[in-house]
Amino acid sequence: xxxxxxxxxxxxxxxxxxxxxxxxxxxxxxxxxxxxxxxxxxxxxxxxxxxxxxxxxxxxxxxxxxxxxxxxxxxxxxx
Length: 79
Known about the structure:
Elements: H1 8-19, H2 23-38, H3 43-51, H4 61-78
Helix pairs in contact: 1-2
């Protein structure tokens, strides 16, 4: 599988363009989703959180996108 490197800024811009919003709104929505997930008491959600590398207590939108991208690629390669 070919791996391409794309700047995070470009990812936010592409998502924003597809949904008719700004890149700042996309980033803010991802931050809100991360915040909501970190408030969860669900044991499965808590376990998943521990798998996500983060420089701080919670991942940034960039860290989350990187983790999920790597996870998807890994899962595709296993199939």
